[in-house]
Amino acid sequence: MLKKKLAFLSGGKDRRSGLILTIPLCTEQTSMEELSATLDYLLGIPSEKCKARGFTVIVDGRKSQWNIVKTVVLMLQNVIPAEVSLVCVVKPDEFWDKKVTHFCFWKEKDRLGFEVILVSANKLTRYIEPCQLTDEFGGSLVYDHLDWLNKRLVFEKFTKESTSLLDELTVINENEKGSQAEKDRSSESNILPSFDPETVLQTGHELLSELQQRRFNGSEGGGGGTAWSPMDDELLAQPQVMKLLDSLREQYTKYQEVCRQRSKRSQLEEIQTKVMQVVNWLEGPGTEQLRTQWGIGDSIRASQALQQKHEEIESQHSEWFAVYVELNQQIAALLSAGDEEDLMELKGLQQQLSDVCYRQASQLEFRQNVLQSAHEFHMTAQDMSQQLDGLLGMLCADVAPADGAAIQQTLKHLEEKLKSVEGALQSLREKGQVLLDQMSTQTSFSYGKDVGIENKENIDHIHSVMEDMQLRKQRCEDMVDVRRLKMLQMVQLFKCEEDASQVRSTYDYGRQLLQATVVLCQSLRCTTRSSGDTLPRLNRVWKQFTVTSDERQHRLEMASAFHTAAEKILRESPELAELMVDVEAYEEVETVGKGLLDRLTVPVIFPDGSATLYFLLTIISLSTHILACSSFFNLFLMFMSFNLIGQSVDWKQSGIERGLD
């Protein structure tokens, strides 16, 4: 209806400073209802002070009929009878019936309450200054109806939104002053303004700025070409806009503080919720995961599987630890800018969160260290087992050396293997002790969980592995002792063969020399000291030496057969050799051993009656080892004592004692 421009306030004033209300009638039928509504709206714009000065109404009837003009004039009596001071009816060029029109308005003058005059457009300046008239009445006042309408819509929108926003902000701010329970209810209801305060304030500032600028530009008069608005001067919305802006800024400032408090409470509640989520998970599922992971495995593969499972557990914990770091930063930020009433609560949350996270992290680290130590322990045990297997394989292999040097090299390699096994066992004991220390110093999990039962199984396993490796090493050492003695005897055998070969060549060379000597003596017909008995003596000595060497060789062969049979029993079943369960195998060893002992009862001596200490020590060493492998030691001592006592040869007592030692 306003766009139809049925009536408007141009902003012009009469000589009494009353506002000018213009009603431009047109050739089309004018709706009285719409006109009445338009007048009601326009008359509601000015202030009461402005209304008190009265209105001058210009009814432009130049394009309308007399009866419509009359209806409009009469309607003014019902709409604004008290406010109307003068009604100027602008006559058309075709003059109405003067008698009729004059008589009609004159007759109704007292009843109307205001004066009505008929005037042509060019005579209107007698009652109103030209500068207060618009151009259609020959005046210079600039008025843009669409511009006014747009600004009026902006003003009314701002007024409506700001008024509604003020009411809402007032309610919100008043609720925040209530009790804590009311604050909680307010927070729960999540009351928010219907309009954005920033947008409404910006609209108000733009409107106020434009009103102030238009008034400044238009205050010099109507000749400046700037459109004059009815909201300027007495119709000013500027004071109202300023008042609304001031009230809105005040309530909005309070609302911002309310929002800040709400945000702080919301952030605090959110932090509390997240903290409890982290704490509940770490003390619940996280702790339960660690409680069920206490084994250390029985092999490298098993320990690696446990480490992989632990890495998965750590990965799940890492996600919650990341939340902990974020929460800790948020709490630190709130502590640096928080109120006194929130400091204790925030510090309590931070302490609780830190305690739980650090405790869980220490448990994860401890579990990782235990698994790492267990992995190293199993690796060392496997390495030692492989070394023992290699050593056992070397001991089980047949010895077929080509010469004494090869035997010495093999013996050296055997000693190196044994030394390496000893080093591996020492390393295993050290790593096992580290693991046992970790088990013994391990504390219970949170909330009183006793881990003694789980640790006992692990500790028993560690002791079992170390004891098993110790027993395997001991068995290998026993077999190494047997192999060492056998190889030393084989070295002696090769040495005897070498010495025999050397003596044989010496004997042949001496015999040739003696034969040459005999031939020379015969040819020279002379006698020498050695010509008669040297050669026979050499033959006797050689015969005695060969007999003794053969005896020595036979004894060494018997010793080799004995050790071979003994190693076979030790290799196949070392326990059965001690318990004498494998009767046939043991009888074979016993038979060979007895035959060797019988042979050893006859000492190897030279014809001059002196005993070779080297052979004697060899016999005693060999006999002692044989008796250590069987149960003939007492019988051997009896035979040796009888033999030593019954010999007619002169044995030196000190030599016997040293040999027995």
UniProtKB/TrEMBL annotation:
Statement: the UniProt record of this protein carries the keyword Repeat: yes
InterPro entries the record matches: CRAL-TRIO_dom, Spectrin_SESTD1
A Gene Ontology molecular function term of the record: phosphatidylinositol-5-phosphate binding
CRAL-TRIO domain boundaries: 1-145
Family matches, as PROSITE patterns: CRAL_TRIO (PS50191)
Keywords: Membrane, Repeat, Transmembrane, Transmembrane helix
Spans through the membrane: 613-637
Family (UniProt): Belongs to the SOLO family.
Protein name, per record: SEC14 and spectrin domains 1
Native source species: Cyprinus carpio
